[in-house]
Amino acid sequence: MSAVTTAAPGIRARHDHALRITAFVAGTLYLLTFATSIPTLGLYEPVLDHPDFVLGAGSADSVLWGAFSEVVLAFACVGTAVVLFPVARRQSETAAVGFVVARVLEAGLILIGVAALLSVVSLRQEAAGIDGADATSLVTAGRALVAVHDWTFLLGQSLMPVVNALCLGYVLYRSGLVPRIIPVVGLAGAPLLLASDIALLFGAYAQRTPAAGLAALPVAAWEFALGAWLVVRGFRPARPA
Fold first, then answer.
1. Domain encompassing residue 30
2. Distance CA 89, CA 134 (A)
3. CB pairs under 8 A, 24+ apart, for 86-93?
4. Does any domain span residue 145?
5. Is residue 65 included in any domain, yes or no?
6. How far apart (Å, rounded) are the C-alpha atoms in residues 71 and 43?
7. Is 237 a member of any domain?
8. Prediction pTM value
9. Which of 11-25, 41-55, 120-134, 145-159 is the least confident region?
10. What is the distance between the alpha carbons of residues 60 and 55, in angstroms, rounded to a whole number?
11. Does residue 102 form part of some domain?
């Protein structure tokens, strides 16, 4: 009996240390998603906003850096799901699986969008000396690939965060592993972002407009706050499931 009692504090300490590492890694990955997602719209500006980009106008370097940034973003998205799954599963296996699936889908859609824009860069490299009807066809193909990126952005980086906020927010609110105000922001912001996504789908307003940005702000705030809290403070003791 005394040996068990003596060993228990050591086991508990190792468990707490492992949980702290999990929280730190998950928080770092969440912050990495911010560091890699925020600059991309600016880096992609030459290809997204200039139809003649595919004909060789301007430099392609910023687009390549944007693509690299989004590849890192995709891996960071999957990383958050892998790291947090064991923690979330203790509270709700259904919500934990939903979070992982949504995060993996988000990463996959991001990579499809990256491939579309890199295809524009490839077309651009073949555009030297092309003019007339061929140039018009090339611009049309480039805009079609940009449209693929825009739709994958809507489905991946706007719709999937709604599912992420609902699944992970539910787990964290129920468990008390972080201050409840953090998941509350995510749970409240998810319906707002979903409504905005539906409005975008039906053309009420365009992507990259102030209305779309404001609708995404609460979910963005919840993800940033979660990442910062996990890095600085880690998980609180969980309440009974």
1. 2-232
2. 55
3. 86/22, 87/19, 87/22, 87/177, 87/235, 88/167, 88/168, 88/171, 90/175, 90/238, 90/241, 91/171, 91/174, 91/175, 91/238, 91/241, 92/170, 92/171, 92/174, 92/241
4. yes
5. yes
6. 14
7. no
8. 0.90
9. 120-134
10. 11
11. yes
